[in-house]
Give the backbone structure.
Amino acid sequence: MKKRLESLILPRLEKELKQKTLWWKGQWWASSRFLALVDSCEKNLAQGGFGEGQRLVLLLPNCPLVLALSIAAWRLKGAVAPLNLQSGPSALVENMAVLDPWGVVLPQGMEQLGEAISAAGYPTVATGLDEPIPAFTGRIGEIDSQETAVVFSTSGTTGTPKAVVITHANLIDNTEKVFGFVEELKRDDILLNVLPNFHTLGYSVSGILPLTIGLPQALLPGFMPPQNAVEAIREAGVTVMVAVPTMVALTLATAAKGVEIGHTLRVIICGGDRLNPQFDKRARESMNLSILEGYGLTECSPVVTVNPSLEKRKLGTVGPFLPGYEYKILDREGKPVGSGQDGVLWVKGESVTPGYFRNPEKTEERFADGWFNTGDIVRMDDDGYVTILDRDTDILIVGGFNVYPQEVERVLQEHPAVHMAAVIGVPHPVSGEIPKAFVILRENAVATQKELIQFCKEKLAHYKVPRRVEFVASFPLSPAGKILRRKLREAERSKSQP
Protein backbone atom coordinates (compact mmCIF):
# COMPACT_ATOMS: atom_id res chain seq x y z
CA MET A 1 0.00 0.00 0.00
CA LYS A 2 1.24 3.45 -0.88
CA LYS A 3 2.13 5.78 1.96
CA ARG A 4 -0.44 8.38 2.89
CA LEU A 5 0.03 11.70 4.65
CA GLU A 6 -2.26 10.95 7.59
CA SER A 7 -0.35 7.72 8.26
CA LEU A 8 2.85 9.75 8.63
CA ILE A 9 1.43 12.72 10.52
CA LEU A 10 -0.93 11.15 13.05
CA PRO A 11 1.42 8.61 14.70
CA ARG A 12 3.97 11.36 15.26
CA LEU A 13 1.37 13.63 16.87
CA GLU A 14 -0.11 10.80 18.97
CA LYS A 15 3.34 9.79 20.25
CA GLU A 16 4.04 13.21 21.80
CA LEU A 17 0.68 14.56 22.96
CA LYS A 18 2.25 17.43 24.91
CA GLN A 19 4.57 18.47 22.08
CA LYS A 20 4.01 22.02 20.85
CA THR A 21 2.63 21.80 17.33
CA LEU A 22 0.91 25.04 16.32
CA TRP A 23 1.39 28.62 17.46
CA TRP A 24 -1.87 30.47 16.99
CA LYS A 25 -3.07 33.81 18.36
CA GLY A 26 -0.16 34.09 20.74
CA GLN A 27 -0.41 30.57 22.18
CA TRP A 28 1.15 27.20 21.49
CA TRP A 29 -1.18 24.29 20.85
CA ALA A 30 -0.07 20.91 22.08
CA SER A 31 -0.50 17.95 19.75
CA SER A 32 -3.44 16.74 21.87
CA ARG A 33 -5.42 19.91 21.23
CA PHE A 34 -4.80 19.77 17.50
CA LEU A 35 -5.70 16.07 17.36
CA ALA A 36 -8.98 16.81 19.13
CA LEU A 37 -9.81 19.33 16.39
CA VAL A 38 -8.95 16.75 13.71
CA ASP A 39 -11.16 14.12 15.36
CA SER A 40 -14.15 16.47 15.67
CA CYS A 41 -13.83 17.59 12.03
CA GLU A 42 -13.61 14.00 10.84
CA LYS A 43 -16.71 13.00 12.83
CA ASN A 44 -18.79 15.89 11.49
CA LEU A 45 -17.64 15.39 7.90
CA ALA A 46 -18.48 11.70 8.06
CA GLN A 47 -21.88 12.49 9.59
CA GLY A 48 -22.66 14.74 6.61
CA GLY A 49 -21.71 12.04 4.10
CA PHE A 50 -18.19 13.06 3.10
CA GLY A 51 -16.13 10.11 2.02
CA GLU A 52 -13.83 8.39 -0.43
CA GLY A 53 -12.89 10.28 -3.58
CA GLN A 54 -14.78 13.48 -2.67
CA ARG A 55 -13.40 17.01 -2.42
CA LEU A 56 -13.88 19.64 0.27
CA VAL A 57 -13.28 23.24 -0.82
CA LEU A 58 -11.55 25.41 1.80
CA LEU A 59 -12.21 29.14 1.54
CA LEU A 60 -10.17 29.87 4.65
CA PRO A 61 -7.18 31.99 5.59
CA ASN A 62 -4.25 30.24 7.20
CA CYS A 63 -5.52 28.75 10.45
CA PRO A 64 -5.55 25.50 12.47
CA LEU A 65 -8.79 24.47 10.77
CA VAL A 66 -7.16 24.25 7.32
CA LEU A 67 -4.65 21.69 8.58
CA ALA A 68 -7.21 19.82 10.70
CA LEU A 69 -9.70 19.55 7.84
CA SER A 70 -6.97 18.35 5.50
CA ILE A 71 -6.07 15.46 7.81
CA ALA A 72 -9.73 14.70 8.54
CA ALA A 73 -10.54 14.57 4.83
CA TRP A 74 -7.56 12.27 4.19
CA ARG A 75 -8.64 9.90 6.96
CA LEU A 76 -11.97 9.62 5.15
CA LYS A 77 -10.07 8.98 1.87
CA GLY A 78 -11.12 12.31 0.39
CA ALA A 79 -9.24 15.44 -0.65
CA VAL A 80 -9.24 19.19 -0.02
CA ALA A 81 -9.19 22.07 -2.48
CA PRO A 82 -7.99 25.42 -1.07
CA LEU A 83 -9.23 28.47 -2.94
CA ASN A 84 -8.61 32.19 -2.62
CA LEU A 85 -11.41 33.65 -0.51
CA GLN A 86 -10.90 37.04 -2.17
CA SER A 87 -11.52 35.80 -5.72
CA GLY A 88 -15.14 36.98 -5.72
CA PRO A 89 -18.40 34.98 -6.06
CA SER A 90 -18.44 34.58 -9.84
CA ALA A 91 -14.83 33.34 -10.06
CA LEU A 92 -15.35 31.00 -7.12
CA VAL A 93 -18.50 29.48 -8.60
CA GLU A 94 -16.62 29.03 -11.88
CA ASN A 95 -13.95 27.11 -9.99
CA MET A 96 -16.59 25.01 -8.22
CA ALA A 97 -17.86 23.85 -11.58
CA VAL A 98 -14.40 22.45 -12.28
CA LEU A 99 -13.75 21.01 -8.81
CA ASP A 100 -17.19 19.38 -8.37
CA PRO A 101 -16.92 19.63 -4.55
CA TRP A 102 -18.90 17.81 -1.89
CA GLY A 103 -19.10 21.03 0.12
CA VAL A 104 -17.46 24.35 0.93
CA VAL A 105 -16.10 25.68 4.25
CA LEU A 106 -15.72 29.43 4.79
CA PRO A 107 -15.15 31.72 7.78
CA GLN A 108 -17.85 33.18 9.98
CA GLY A 109 -18.89 36.60 8.77
CA MET A 110 -18.86 35.53 5.11
CA GLU A 111 -22.43 34.28 5.05
CA GLN A 112 -23.34 36.47 2.07
CA LEU A 113 -20.64 34.82 -0.02
CA GLY A 114 -21.81 31.46 1.29
CA GLU A 115 -25.35 32.19 0.13
CA ALA A 116 -24.10 33.00 -3.39
CA ILE A 117 -22.16 29.72 -3.54
CA SER A 118 -25.05 27.73 -2.06
CA ALA A 119 -27.42 29.26 -4.60
CA ALA A 120 -25.17 27.84 -7.33
CA GLY A 121 -25.73 24.36 -5.89
CA TYR A 122 -22.71 23.90 -3.62
CA PRO A 123 -23.48 23.37 0.10
CA THR A 124 -21.56 25.69 2.43
CA VAL A 125 -20.88 25.99 6.12
CA ALA A 126 -19.38 28.94 8.02
CA THR A 127 -17.25 28.36 11.08
CA GLY A 128 -14.53 29.75 13.35
CA LEU A 129 -10.91 29.37 12.31
CA ASP A 130 -9.88 27.22 15.25
CA GLU A 131 -13.00 25.21 16.02
CA PRO A 132 -14.66 22.14 14.48
CA ILE A 133 -16.95 22.65 11.51
CA PRO A 134 -20.62 21.99 12.23
CA ALA A 135 -22.03 18.88 10.61
CA PHE A 136 -23.68 19.65 7.29
CA THR A 137 -24.88 17.60 4.36
CA GLY A 138 -22.83 17.86 1.20
CA ARG A 139 -23.71 17.07 -2.37
CA ILE A 140 -22.99 13.92 -4.31
CA GLY A 141 -20.35 14.50 -6.92
CA GLU A 142 -18.34 12.24 -9.14
CA ILE A 143 -15.92 10.07 -7.16
CA ASP A 144 -12.21 10.34 -7.92
CA SER A 145 -9.07 8.55 -6.79
CA GLN A 146 -8.48 8.31 -3.04
CA GLU A 147 -4.80 8.89 -3.83
CA THR A 148 -5.59 12.59 -4.41
CA ALA A 149 -4.63 14.71 -1.40
CA VAL A 150 -5.09 18.28 -2.65
CA VAL A 151 -6.46 19.94 -5.75
CA PHE A 152 -5.13 23.41 -6.48
CA SER A 153 -7.37 25.37 -8.78
CA THR A 154 -6.20 28.29 -10.83
CA SER A 155 -7.22 30.26 -13.88
CA GLY A 156 -5.67 28.98 -17.05
CA THR A 157 -4.00 31.10 -19.69
CA THR A 158 -7.33 31.28 -21.47
CA GLY A 159 -8.99 32.59 -18.36
CA THR A 160 -10.90 29.36 -17.73
CA PRO A 161 -10.08 27.52 -14.50
CA LYS A 162 -7.89 24.46 -14.45
CA ALA A 163 -7.03 22.33 -11.47
CA VAL A 164 -3.83 20.52 -10.54
CA VAL A 165 -4.11 17.14 -8.84
CA ILE A 166 -1.54 16.59 -6.07
CA THR A 167 -1.41 13.07 -4.64
CA HIS A 168 -0.25 11.83 -1.24
CA ALA A 169 2.81 10.36 -2.93
CA ASN A 170 3.58 13.73 -4.57
CA LEU A 171 3.47 15.66 -1.29
CA ILE A 172 5.33 13.04 0.72
CA ASP A 173 8.11 12.88 -1.86
CA ASN A 174 8.47 16.66 -2.12
CA THR A 175 8.35 17.49 1.58
CA GLU A 176 10.79 14.72 2.52
CA LYS A 177 13.17 15.66 -0.30
CA VAL A 178 13.09 19.35 0.65
CA PHE A 179 13.84 18.62 4.30
CA GLY A 180 16.63 16.20 3.41
CA PHE A 181 18.21 18.46 0.79
CA VAL A 182 18.07 21.89 2.45
CA GLU A 183 20.88 21.64 4.96
CA GLU A 184 19.74 24.74 6.82
CA LEU A 185 16.54 22.96 7.94
CA LYS A 186 17.05 21.41 11.38
CA ARG A 187 14.98 19.13 13.63
CA ASP A 188 14.56 21.91 16.19
CA ASP A 189 13.39 24.55 13.70
CA ILE A 190 10.13 26.50 13.99
CA LEU A 191 8.61 27.49 10.63
CA LEU A 192 6.47 30.53 9.90
CA ASN A 193 3.31 29.52 8.03
CA VAL A 194 2.09 32.79 6.52
CA LEU A 195 1.92 32.21 2.76
CA PRO A 196 -1.68 31.69 1.61
CA ASN A 197 -2.80 28.07 1.69
CA PHE A 198 -4.18 28.30 -1.86
CA HIS A 199 -0.55 28.94 -2.83
CA THR A 200 1.10 25.53 -3.14
CA LEU A 201 4.38 26.77 -1.61
CA GLY A 202 2.45 27.93 1.44
CA TYR A 203 0.28 24.83 1.78
CA SER A 204 3.01 22.27 1.16
CA VAL A 205 6.30 23.68 2.50
CA SER A 206 4.95 25.97 5.25
CA GLY A 207 2.04 23.79 6.42
CA ILE A 208 2.36 20.12 5.49
CA LEU A 209 6.15 19.79 5.70
CA PRO A 210 6.25 20.69 9.42
CA LEU A 211 3.45 18.22 10.18
CA THR A 212 5.10 15.47 8.12
CA ILE A 213 8.59 15.99 9.52
CA GLY A 214 7.51 16.90 13.05
CA LEU A 215 8.42 20.60 13.28
CA PRO A 216 6.39 23.24 15.12
CA GLN A 217 4.87 25.99 13.00
CA ALA A 218 3.62 29.49 13.73
CA LEU A 219 0.34 30.18 11.93
CA LEU A 220 -0.78 33.61 10.76
CA PRO A 221 -3.98 34.30 8.77
CA GLY A 222 -2.00 36.58 6.46
CA PHE A 223 1.20 38.55 6.11
CA MET A 224 -0.25 42.06 6.06
CA PRO A 225 0.50 44.23 7.85
CA PRO A 226 4.15 43.06 8.05
CA GLN A 227 4.33 44.04 11.73
CA ASN A 228 2.06 41.07 12.51
CA ALA A 229 4.53 38.66 10.96
CA VAL A 230 7.43 40.32 12.75
CA GLU A 231 5.65 39.99 16.10
CA ALA A 232 4.88 36.32 15.39
CA ILE A 233 8.54 35.67 14.58
CA ARG A 234 9.58 37.20 17.90
CA GLU A 235 6.88 35.67 20.09
CA ALA A 236 6.97 32.14 18.63
CA GLY A 237 10.75 32.03 18.22
CA VAL A 238 10.52 31.38 14.46
CA THR A 239 13.80 30.19 12.93
CA VAL A 240 12.78 29.65 9.28
CA MET A 241 10.52 31.80 7.12
CA VAL A 242 9.17 30.53 3.80
CA ALA A 243 8.38 33.55 1.66
CA VAL A 244 7.94 35.11 -1.74
CA PRO A 245 10.11 38.11 -2.75
CA THR A 246 7.38 40.63 -1.90
CA MET A 247 7.30 39.40 1.69
CA VAL A 248 11.08 39.64 1.88
CA ALA A 249 10.93 43.22 0.61
CA LEU A 250 8.28 44.21 3.14
CA THR A 251 10.12 42.50 6.01
CA LEU A 252 13.29 44.38 5.07
CA ALA A 253 11.35 47.64 4.94
CA THR A 254 9.96 46.93 8.41
CA ALA A 255 13.44 46.23 9.75
CA ALA A 256 14.72 49.45 8.15
CA LYS A 257 12.22 51.37 10.31
CA GLY A 258 14.01 50.09 13.41
CA VAL A 259 11.54 47.33 14.26
CA GLU A 260 13.22 44.39 15.99
CA ILE A 261 12.69 41.26 13.88
CA GLY A 262 13.89 38.81 16.46
CA HIS A 263 17.20 37.07 17.00
CA THR A 264 15.88 33.54 16.34
CA LEU A 265 15.23 33.94 12.59
CA ARG A 266 18.16 32.29 10.78
CA VAL A 267 17.14 31.83 7.19
CA ILE A 268 14.49 32.75 4.62
CA ILE A 269 13.60 30.21 1.93
CA CYS A 270 12.28 32.21 -0.98
CA GLY A 271 10.40 31.13 -4.11
CA GLY A 272 7.52 32.14 -6.33
CA ASP A 273 9.42 34.71 -8.36
CA ARG A 274 12.86 36.09 -9.05
CA LEU A 275 14.56 37.53 -6.00
CA ASN A 276 16.32 40.87 -6.17
CA PRO A 277 19.98 39.99 -5.31
CA GLN A 278 20.19 43.20 -3.28
CA PHE A 279 17.69 41.73 -0.81
CA ASP A 280 20.26 39.23 0.43
CA LYS A 281 22.80 41.95 1.17
CA ARG A 282 20.18 44.01 2.99
CA ALA A 283 19.02 40.95 4.94
CA ARG A 284 22.56 40.27 6.13
CA GLU A 285 23.11 43.88 7.11
CA SER A 286 19.78 44.56 8.83
CA MET A 287 18.74 41.16 10.17
CA ASN A 288 21.93 39.06 10.18
CA LEU A 289 20.41 36.33 8.07
CA SER A 290 20.63 35.04 4.53
CA ILE A 291 18.21 33.88 1.87
CA LEU A 292 18.03 30.57 0.05
CA GLU A 293 16.34 30.97 -3.30
CA GLY A 294 14.44 28.12 -4.92
CA TYR A 295 12.09 27.38 -7.78
CA GLY A 296 8.93 25.38 -8.10
CA LEU A 297 5.57 24.94 -9.73
CA THR A 298 2.21 23.77 -8.50
CA GLU A 299 2.51 20.78 -10.86
CA CYS A 300 5.66 19.72 -8.99
CA SER A 301 4.20 19.88 -5.44
CA PRO A 302 5.97 22.45 -5.69
CA VAL A 303 9.75 22.51 -5.18
CA VAL A 304 12.00 21.63 -8.14
CA THR A 305 15.31 23.31 -7.30
CA VAL A 306 16.70 25.10 -4.25
CA ASN A 307 20.01 26.34 -2.92
CA PRO A 308 20.87 23.76 -0.25
CA SER A 309 22.83 25.90 2.23
CA LEU A 310 24.40 29.26 2.81
CA GLU A 311 27.83 27.78 2.03
CA LYS A 312 26.74 26.03 -1.19
CA ARG A 313 24.35 28.61 -2.60
CA LYS A 314 24.97 30.66 -5.71
CA LEU A 315 23.29 34.05 -5.60
CA GLY A 316 21.16 34.74 -8.64
CA THR A 317 20.43 31.04 -9.15
CA VAL A 318 17.58 28.92 -7.79
CA GLY A 319 20.01 26.13 -6.90
CA PRO A 320 20.35 22.56 -8.18
CA PHE A 321 17.55 20.01 -8.65
CA LEU A 322 16.15 18.10 -5.71
CA PRO A 323 17.21 14.43 -5.67
CA GLY A 324 14.92 12.21 -7.71
CA TYR A 325 14.15 14.66 -10.49
CA GLU A 326 15.01 13.82 -14.06
CA TYR A 327 15.33 16.89 -16.23
CA LYS A 328 16.03 17.99 -19.76
CA ILE A 329 16.48 21.43 -21.27
CA LEU A 330 15.30 21.69 -24.86
CA ASP A 331 15.47 24.36 -27.52
CA ARG A 332 12.39 25.39 -29.49
CA GLU A 333 12.97 22.52 -31.91
CA GLY A 334 12.91 20.06 -29.04
CA LYS A 335 16.66 19.35 -29.11
CA PRO A 336 18.71 19.19 -25.88
CA VAL A 337 20.94 22.19 -25.17
CA GLY A 338 24.34 22.15 -23.53
CA SER A 339 25.57 23.65 -20.27
CA GLY A 340 25.23 27.42 -20.22
CA GLN A 341 22.68 27.47 -23.05
CA ASP A 342 19.06 28.61 -22.83
CA GLY A 343 16.14 26.25 -23.26
CA VAL A 344 12.74 25.17 -21.97
CA LEU A 345 12.85 23.01 -18.84
CA TRP A 346 11.13 19.61 -18.74
CA VAL A 347 11.05 17.56 -15.53
CA LYS A 348 10.03 14.09 -14.41
CA GLY A 349 9.81 12.56 -10.93
CA GLU A 350 7.71 11.42 -7.97
CA SER A 351 6.80 15.00 -7.07
CA VAL A 352 5.24 15.68 -10.48
CA THR A 353 1.43 15.67 -10.66
CA PRO A 354 -0.31 12.90 -12.59
CA GLY A 355 -2.13 15.65 -14.50
CA TYR A 356 -4.92 18.18 -14.49
CA PHE A 357 -8.20 17.39 -12.80
CA ARG A 358 -10.67 15.91 -15.31
CA ASN A 359 -8.85 17.68 -18.13
CA PRO A 360 -7.14 15.14 -20.40
CA GLU A 361 -6.70 17.72 -23.17
CA LYS A 362 -4.71 20.08 -20.94
CA THR A 363 -2.78 17.15 -19.49
CA GLU A 364 -1.83 15.95 -22.96
CA GLU A 365 -0.77 19.49 -23.86
CA ARG A 366 1.78 19.79 -21.01
CA PHE A 367 2.83 16.15 -20.44
CA ALA A 368 4.58 13.61 -22.64
CA ASP A 369 5.62 10.13 -21.43
CA GLY A 370 5.65 11.31 -17.82
CA TRP A 371 7.65 14.43 -18.65
CA PHE A 372 6.19 17.81 -17.68
CA ASN A 373 6.85 20.92 -19.74
CA THR A 374 7.37 23.68 -17.17
CA GLY A 375 7.13 26.37 -19.82
CA ASP A 376 10.07 28.14 -18.20
CA ILE A 377 13.25 29.12 -20.03
CA VAL A 378 16.30 28.28 -17.94
CA ARG A 379 20.08 28.03 -18.08
CA MET A 380 22.10 25.50 -16.10
CA ASP A 381 25.79 25.87 -15.28
CA ASP A 382 28.42 23.14 -15.07
CA ASP A 383 27.68 22.61 -11.37
CA GLY A 384 24.00 21.96 -12.01
CA TYR A 385 22.77 25.29 -10.65
CA VAL A 386 19.76 26.67 -12.50
CA THR A 387 18.96 30.25 -13.46
CA ILE A 388 15.39 31.12 -14.46
CA LEU A 389 15.55 33.44 -17.45
CA ASP A 390 11.98 33.87 -18.59
CA ARG A 391 8.67 32.14 -18.96
CA ASP A 392 7.64 30.50 -22.15
CA THR A 393 4.10 31.62 -21.48
CA ASP A 394 2.54 35.00 -20.86
CA ILE A 395 1.99 34.38 -17.15
CA LEU A 396 2.79 37.32 -14.87
CA ILE A 397 4.27 36.74 -11.41
CA VAL A 398 3.04 39.47 -9.06
CA GLY A 399 4.36 39.16 -5.54
CA GLY A 400 4.77 35.42 -6.03
CA PHE A 401 1.24 34.90 -7.37
CA ASN A 402 0.36 33.84 -10.89
CA VAL A 403 -1.62 36.37 -12.89
CA TYR A 404 -2.97 35.29 -16.25
CA PRO A 405 -3.26 38.15 -18.75
CA GLN A 406 -6.33 36.80 -20.47
CA GLU A 407 -8.23 36.61 -17.19
CA VAL A 408 -7.61 40.34 -16.58
CA GLU A 409 -8.30 41.16 -20.24
CA ARG A 410 -11.61 39.36 -20.03
CA VAL A 411 -12.67 41.53 -17.08
CA LEU A 412 -11.56 44.75 -18.78
CA GLN A 413 -13.50 43.82 -21.87
CA GLU A 414 -16.65 43.54 -19.77
CA HIS A 415 -16.51 47.32 -19.37
CA PRO A 416 -18.90 48.94 -21.83
CA ALA A 417 -16.29 51.40 -23.11
CA VAL A 418 -13.59 48.81 -23.83
CA HIS A 419 -13.15 47.29 -27.27
CA MET A 420 -9.97 45.30 -26.75
CA ALA A 421 -7.45 44.89 -23.95
CA ALA A 422 -4.00 43.40 -23.57
CA VAL A 423 -2.13 42.94 -20.30
CA ILE A 424 1.59 42.54 -19.68
CA GLY A 425 3.87 42.66 -16.67
CA VAL A 426 6.14 45.63 -16.06
CA PRO A 427 8.99 45.64 -13.52
CA HIS A 428 8.27 46.71 -9.94
CA PRO A 429 10.84 46.99 -7.11
CA VAL A 430 8.67 45.24 -4.49
CA SER A 431 6.26 42.94 -6.34
CA GLY A 432 8.71 41.86 -9.03
CA GLU A 433 6.25 42.94 -11.69
CA ILE A 434 2.80 44.49 -11.82
CA PRO A 435 0.05 44.23 -14.45
CA LYS A 436 -0.19 46.99 -17.02
CA ALA A 437 -3.15 47.14 -19.39
CA PHE A 438 -3.25 48.46 -22.92
CA VAL A 439 -6.77 49.35 -23.95
CA ILE A 440 -8.51 50.17 -27.21
CA LEU A 441 -11.77 51.98 -26.51
CA ARG A 442 -14.97 51.48 -28.44
CA GLU A 443 -15.73 54.09 -31.04
CA ASN A 444 -16.98 57.30 -29.43
CA ALA A 445 -16.64 55.76 -25.97
CA VAL A 446 -14.91 57.48 -23.07
CA ALA A 447 -13.18 56.01 -20.02
CA THR A 448 -10.39 57.02 -17.68
CA GLN A 449 -7.52 55.03 -16.24
CA LYS A 450 -8.95 55.46 -12.74
CA GLU A 451 -12.36 54.22 -13.86
CA LEU A 452 -11.00 51.03 -15.44
CA ILE A 453 -8.75 50.25 -12.47
CA GLN A 454 -11.71 50.62 -10.10
CA PHE A 455 -13.80 48.38 -12.38
CA CYS A 456 -11.14 45.67 -12.10
CA LYS A 457 -10.89 46.08 -8.32
CA GLU A 458 -14.54 45.10 -8.04
CA LYS A 459 -14.02 41.86 -9.96
CA LEU A 460 -10.46 40.67 -9.36
CA ALA A 461 -8.14 39.81 -6.50
CA HIS A 462 -6.01 42.85 -5.66
CA TYR A 463 -2.77 41.46 -7.12
CA LYS A 464 -4.47 40.91 -10.49
CA VAL A 465 -5.67 44.51 -10.85
CA PRO A 466 -3.75 46.60 -13.43
CA ARG A 467 -1.81 49.39 -11.75
CA ARG A 468 -1.48 51.28 -15.04
CA VAL A 469 -3.69 51.65 -18.09
CA GLU A 470 -2.47 53.02 -21.42
CA PHE A 471 -4.96 53.85 -24.16
CA VAL A 472 -3.81 52.86 -27.66
CA ALA A 473 -5.24 52.84 -31.18
CA SER A 474 -4.09 49.32 -32.14
CA PHE A 475 -2.16 46.23 -31.02
CA PRO A 476 0.67 44.34 -32.71
CA LEU A 477 -0.93 41.19 -34.08
CA SER A 478 0.30 37.85 -35.42
CA PRO A 479 -0.79 36.61 -38.86
CA ALA A 480 -3.45 34.62 -37.08
CA GLY A 481 -4.74 37.76 -35.37
CA LYS A 482 -3.39 37.01 -31.89
CA ILE A 483 -2.13 39.92 -29.82
CA LEU A 484 1.66 39.83 -29.61
CA ARG A 485 2.26 40.64 -25.96
CA ARG A 486 5.97 40.08 -26.57
CA LYS A 487 5.97 43.16 -28.82
CA LEU A 488 4.18 45.18 -26.14
CA ARG A 489 6.80 44.11 -23.60
CA GLU A 490 9.62 45.06 -25.95
CA ALA A 491 8.07 48.48 -26.57
CA GLU A 492 7.63 48.99 -22.83
CA ARG A 493 11.27 48.11 -22.15
CA SER A 494 12.46 50.53 -24.83
CA LYS A 495 10.64 53.37 -23.04
CA SER A 496 12.73 52.85 -19.92
CA GLN A 497 16.04 52.73 -21.76
CA PRO A 498 18.07 55.92 -22.08
